[in-house]
Amino acid sequence: MKRNDLNDGDGTALPTNAARLGTRLRLARQTRGLTLKALADEAHCSESLLSKIENGKASPSLPMLHKLVKVLGTNIGWMFEEADGEEGIVFRAGTRPLISLDPLRRGEGISLERIIPYSPGHLLQCNIHHVEEDGESAGPIEHVGEEVGYVIAGEIELIVGDEVFRLNPGDAFVFKSELPHHYRNVGKGRASIFWVNTPPTF
Amino acid sequence: MKRNDLNDGDGTALPTNAARLGTRLRLARQTRGLTLKALADEAHCSESLLSKIENGKASPSLPMLHKLVKVLGTNIGWMFEEADGEEGIVFRAGTRPLISLDPLRRGEGISLERIIPYSPGHLLQCNIHHVEEDGESAGPIEHVGEEVGYVIAGEIELIVGDEVFRLNPGDAFVFKSELPHHYRNVGKGRASIFWVNTPPTF
DNA sequence: ACATTTCATTCAAGTCTCTTGACAAAAATT
DNA sequence: AATTTTTGTCAAGAGACTTGAATGAAATGT
Questions:
Q1: pLDDT at site A12
Q2: Mind telling me how many Å the CA of A114 is from chain B's nearest CA?
Q3: One domain, residues A138 and A166
Q4: pLDDT (tens digit, 9 = 90+) per residue, B31-84?
Q5: ipTM of the assembly?
Q6: Which of B118, B113, B148 is nearest to A194 (CA)?
Q7: Touching check for A148 and chain B: CB below 8 Å?
Q8: pLDDT in tens, B111-150
Q9: Does a structural domain hold residue B5?
Q10: Residues 6+ away with beta carbon under 8 Å from B90
Q11: Residue pair B27/A178 in contact by the 8 Å Cβ criterion
């Protein structure tokens, strides 16, 4: 017997769950700017498999899924978190998930503290960027939208377009995402930036 | 002579303008979901040329540019419209305009520190809300969109829908703007909240 | 006028990303 | 234990974009 889609025992197709997981994985990957190959290499599996998983044509084994979320800097729970209304409003300091950008080639010494948990339907993205001493975001990225941020602590250098700014705690910035931008920690110790932007992938 | 980038007469590279135009063209194309080939077919030119233009490795002739914007449904002017970037990117602590809400009957003991200056075309609104001891925002407002905030200092009570939260520095929140919401300072001294929301109008 | 340079533009070949189908091996089901 | 499912790999392929060499037309210099 040949099938194009997963189903349960009694013949009813259930692309729903597999597809949903796949979609989330894809979004998580894309948000981090990874290609299938890049993720496959990090997670030690084949591109092919990832492609199938993301398209709901296969569902990862638990060990596999574990490797994936690890590389993506998420946790398995997140992938299944229900997206409906009853999501949290308040997220306490110290209880928010951290994802490290280091292994992902999107920046060195940078970790993101998720303020808005992953879930489709949000109009905003929001993270606290923690930048270790000498940490630096990877090459400029351009996408559609707008960004706004507030320096909570530390001293950072922000490059937007061809302008360079040195920012201290309390300073804020706004710019269109289509301007190439990146930043680096130029002070002593860790720097933190509260960062909000309109959705990266659209 | 071989070059990778455009330059002017005296040898200084000027990727800036060409690159900016390229970026806008790419954005316009992608926004419309066109591939290089699709656009090339419509505009009767080669994919190759488009690729180079978008990457700032060539700059279109005027007739060419005209064909492109025509297919893309824009006008040449838009391609060169100065990035609203000229309105400032960084806003230093202590230099930002303050607006008191009291005379507006929008709250007592509250003043807003504008991070994003008012100007149409912004996708985000952003202010720091300074709330004096015992200050309180006026009755719940509802609009369309989403809000996210971060408590910089002080202790506040946030009421969203029928839920009440007590927030301390470092805590963050997110909610849909259509939920009725307001807040009050419940600590000693002034409280400050970094607050971002999608524009209330539209 | 003529030679030279510059640069938009094309064609063809190459690269990169992702998808698909056939198969092996492991796991689950009967 | 035998059979069916299904993860996972490999290799081939399709699509989107990039790059380099070649062309030709305009601008520049002599």
A1: 30
A2: 10
A3: yes
A4: 788 899 999 999 999 999 999 999 889 889 889 999 999 998 888 877 776 644
A5: 0.62
A6: B148
A7: yes
A8: 999 888 766 667 888 999 999 999 998 766 667 688 999 9
A9: no
A10: A158, A165, A167, A171, A172, A173
A11: yes
**B126, B146, B173 ranked by CB distance to A123: nearest:** B146
The integer distance in angstroms from the CA atom of A64 to the C1' atom of D10 is 19
Tokens of A45: 């599996």
A69, two tokens: 């979320």
In sequence order, the β-bridge partners of residue B129 are B112, B193
Mean pLDDT (chain B, rounded): 81
At A4, give phi and psi (nearest 5°). Answer: -100, -15
Strand partners, A173: A149, B90
Q: Please check whether residue B10 lies inside any domain of the structure.
A: no
pLDDT digits 0-9 by tens, A154-202? 999 998 877 889 999 999 999 888 777 889 999 999 999 999 988 653 3
Is the residue at A108 inside a domain? Answer: yes
Q: Which residues of A touch B173 (CB under 8 A)?
A: 89-91
Query: Which among B83, B172, B198 has CB closest to A115?
Result: B172
Instruction: Residue B173: count other Cβ atoms within 10 Å of its Cβ.
Output: 24
Same domain, A189 and A104: yes
Distance of CA A78 to the CA centre of its chain: 12
**Structural tokens at position A25:** 């994985």
Q: How far apart are CA A119 and CA A71, in angstroms?
A: 19
- CB of A58 lies under 7 Å from some atom of strand D: yes
Range of the domain at B29: 15-81
In total, how many domains does chain A have? 2
B-facing residues of A in 54-83 (CB < 8 A) are none
Give strand pairing partners of B114.
Answer: B127
Say if residues B183 and B158 touch (Cβ distance below 8 Å).
yes
Q: Are residues A69 and A145 in the same domain?
A: no
* Residue closest to C26 C1′ by Cα: A61
B122/A contact by beta carbon, under 8 A: yes
| Sequence-separated (6 or more) residues with CB below 8 Å from residue A174 | A146, A147, A148, A149, B88, B89, B91, B115, B116, B122, B124, B126
A168 CB near a chain B CB, below 8 Å? Answer: yes
pLDDT in tens, A33-82: 789 999 999 999 999 999 999 998 999 988 999 999 988 877 787 777 65
Choice between A105 and A190, residue whose per-residue pLDDT is larger = A190
Nucleotide C6 C1' to residue B51 CA (A): 20
